[in-house]
C-alpha cells in the first residue's frame, strides 16, 4: 500500500471520497471501477447502534461507517466477497452480541491489539484485498452538536441538540452544526491523501452528519481548499426526513456555504429528475456559482428510492477526470450558463 492510499497502477488517478454511511458506499462503489488508487475518508461521529455501544464501552472511534467503506472496496474475488459479507453480518438474538456486526467487532479487536485505528483499518483492508485505503476523518471520536428550531413553543427560540442520532432524527429544523471538540485533529494520512488527489468527491450522504463534518475539521478543510484536485460535490436525491426535511437542492448548497465560507468546488452533481428544468435550476446554478462551480444535471438515481446508482455516478466521475468538453458530453446542453444536462 502506497503512502497516498493506493496499491495498484501508479498511473491510475488517485481518487479521494469523503462522507459516511450509504452515501459514501455508493460513491466508493462508483470510483473503484475507475481506479485502483482510492482513499475513503470517513466521518467518526456516529453514536447509535453497534458503533455507539463500542464507542461508549471501549473509547474507540465508531467503526460502522468505516466497516461499510471497507466492504465497498473489498476485492472482487471469492475471498474478498466472502469477507465483505462476513464484515457486514450482524448478530441476532437478545444476548450481548445482538445488533453488533462482525466487522465492527473485528475493527475493535484490531484497534486494541495494534493500538492505532489507522493500522487496524490497513490490516482489515489487507484481509479484504482492498485496492486503496479507508481512513477516519479524525483519529478521535467526535460529537455533533446542532442548533435546532421548532422544538419550543416560541418558534424564535432554538435548542441545542447533541449526538448524531439525535440530530438525524429531530422533528425540528436543523440550522447549524458544530463538532465537539470544536478544533479536532485531522488524520494525518487523510490530509496527505487529499493533497495528492486527482479527484476529490464530497457527498452524497446525510448532509449535517456525514457531509458537513468534513469541512469542520480545520486541517482537513485546509487540505480541501489547497488541493489541486478536481472537486465534485454530489447532492442527495432528495431531502432526508429529520435532517433536511423541506430542503431544496439550492438550500443544501446554502447550508454548506454557511458552514464553510470560501469553500470551492468545480462541479455540483444533481440528479436530473430531482431538479426539473425551469426556475429551480436557475436558483441552483446561482447557488453553485458561490462555490465557483457549474452544475451537472445527470441521471444518477438508482432503482432503490433515495439511492444513487454507482455505475451512473462512475460515468459522471470518468468524464470529469477525462476533462471531456461539456458540449461533447451532452445530448442536450442547457442554455443557462453553468448548467449542463447529461442523459
From TrEMBL:
Presence of keyword Transit peptide: no
Keywords noted in UniProt: Cytoplasm
Protein localization: Cytoplasm
Signal peptide: none
Main location: cytoplasm
Superkingdom of origin organism: Bacteria
Record carries keyword Ligase: no
CDD domains per record: YvcK_like
InterPro entries in UniProt: CofD (IPR002882), CofD-like_dom_sf (IPR038136), Gluconeogen_factor (IPR010119)
NCBIfam families, alphabetized: CofD_related (TIGR01826)
Similarity comment: Belongs to the gluconeogenesis factor family.
Function: Required for morphogenesis under gluconeogenic growth conditions.
PANTHER family associated with the record: GLUCONEOGENESIS FACTOR-RELATED (PTHR30135:SF3), UNCHARACTERIZED PROTEIN YVCK-RELATED (PTHR30135)
UniProt protein name: Putative gluconeogenesis factor
Organism: Rhodococcoides corynebacterioides
